[in-house]
Amino acid sequence: MHLYINTTSPFVRLVRLAIEEKGLSDRVELEIVDPWADPKAFLKANPAGRVPTLVTDEGHVIAEAHLILRYLDDIAEPSVFPSEDLAATLAIAAPALGATEAATAIIIGRKSSDNFDTDMVGSKRYRTMADGLARLDANLPRDFDDRPDIANFAAVTALDYITFRFTDRDWLAELPNLRAWRERQKGRPSVEATMPYV
């Protein structure tokens, strides 16, 4: 399989966490691309120009992180969407994914407006990030050691992406439970191997 990625995308990280936790890393070739540069081979695979994009061994092209996760669940265990406590797991994942969407919207919005952070949309996105992390603090996902799933994938991705991209504040200053949870995930091979970087 071939996976188009970049090194900062939180959506790429969700997929890479699944690949690592499912033991598929030796079956997936990673290709780093700059989605904003519109590389020809990448656009041929995904005209939307978004990462992650997976090309299966059979040549099927699957774009969008959640669709790729669904496919990976079909070919390898453990399930990212476990049947046990599924609703509770998804309820934890939801605000984390919302915070991630908000954070990426700000980064992209800044490309079109110097005042994006403080305008109506940007301000709402900041609120969504803060609220999402606060909800995680009040309703923590399982530790990776207990069970890797969409909730802890989404939580570690949201938290690490926000602290990576928005360094002007201590996002965990008033979130002791989430801070302690993140500390416990240190050293997990999948978490360390997929950290965002420029």
Descriptive report:
- This protein is an alpha+beta fold and about 200 residues long.
- It has two domains: about 1-75, Glutaredoxin (3-Layer(aba) Sandwich); about 85-190, Glutathione S-transferase Yfyf (Class Pi), Chain A, domain 2.
- The chain is about 50% helix and about 5% strand.
- It has eight helices and four strands; from the N terminus they run βαβαββαααααα.
- The chain has helices spanning about 10-20, 40-45, 65-75, 85-110, 120-140, 150-165, 175-185, 190-195; strands at about 1-5, 30, 55, 60-65.
- A four-stranded mixed sheet has the order 2-1-3-4.
- Helix 1 (about 10-20) links the parallel strand 1 (about 1-5) and strand 2.
- Helix 1 packs parallel to helix 3 (about 65-75), helix 1 crosses helix 6 (about 150-165) and helix 5 packs across helix 7 (about 175-185).
